[in-house]
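Example record

Each entry pairs one chain with its bound ligand, adenosine-5'-triphosphate.
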Amino acid sequence: MTSKNAPLLSCTKLTFSYPKNVVLDNISLEFGIQSQHLNAQENNKTSGEFVGLIGANGAGKSTLLKLLTGISKPNQGEVTLSGASLKTFKRKLIAQYISFVPQDTSIDYAFSVREVVAMGRHPHLKSFEPEGEYDQSRIMHAMEKTDLLKMADRSVTELSGGERQRVFIARALAQETPILILDEPTASLDLCHQLEVLALLKTLAREGHVIITAIHDLNMAARFCDRLIILANQQVVADGKPEEILTESHLRQHFSVEARVDKSDEDGFIRITALQPVSHICSA
Ligand SMILES: Nc1ncnc2c1ncn2[C@@H]1O[C@H](COP(=O)(O)OP(=O)(O)OP(=O)(O)O)[C@@H](O)[C@H]1O
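Structure tokens for the complex follow.
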């Protein structure tokens, strides 16, 4: 049963371990304020947010994102979608509400760009149901927004890493889900495409989507995200607005770097200048 007042997505007391190491311990988070998105007829536009998940290499960002999508299962704790346990949702139903852009975008089979983007429509279609006009318009729109129209017929196996990353982002856009979860979606993109993709995600958040992305570029995170969460020592160690989170003390403690943090008079964004590592060993 879903509940109207529950957050769109939340996790409670999540713990995840590999045989030799605990990665996440007792993580509780809430994303999005209301759940009207789960009623396809309603179009609530107030609960969107653009959340950046940050932390050193190995801090557990990808692991948490996979737990939130239901791809991985927690050892303890629960993920809920609009108040209902993710365990009660079939995979196809989850895919109507959560799209995922993985860190690894390699594909072995020579699908065309359009074919991969069109896979974003599968959760909305019955088995073997052909795309309708609406599906086709969403596929075209997603390719247009990610600058892929000119390579729609090319094989994904022949694309650069950044081009392939955009194909996966387009697939997520075509999926038209209220929640988008992305694992370092701009890691391979050139500066222009980074700005375009982050601005697009911000627009989606303004339109009511919940966007959760792992991101290493803290200046980009400061500029585009509404909220930042730092993972360190298997825990959420900070959660708030970028200017509250990106402090020199947090950067020293959780990113092992001496940095200068300034707020621009021009646009009000935080600017981080990394000065030097705290020691020769960067810690998670
Ligand atoms: N299949 C696995 N088996 C064992 N340990 C793993 C496995 N996958 C990841 N880990 C470990 O889990 C921890 C968290 O990994 P995760 O990929 O979630 O970190 P991350 O914060 O996303 O890192 P990065 O910034 O480098 O992408 C790391 O210590 C990693 O070595």
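The first strand starts at residue 9 and ends at 18.
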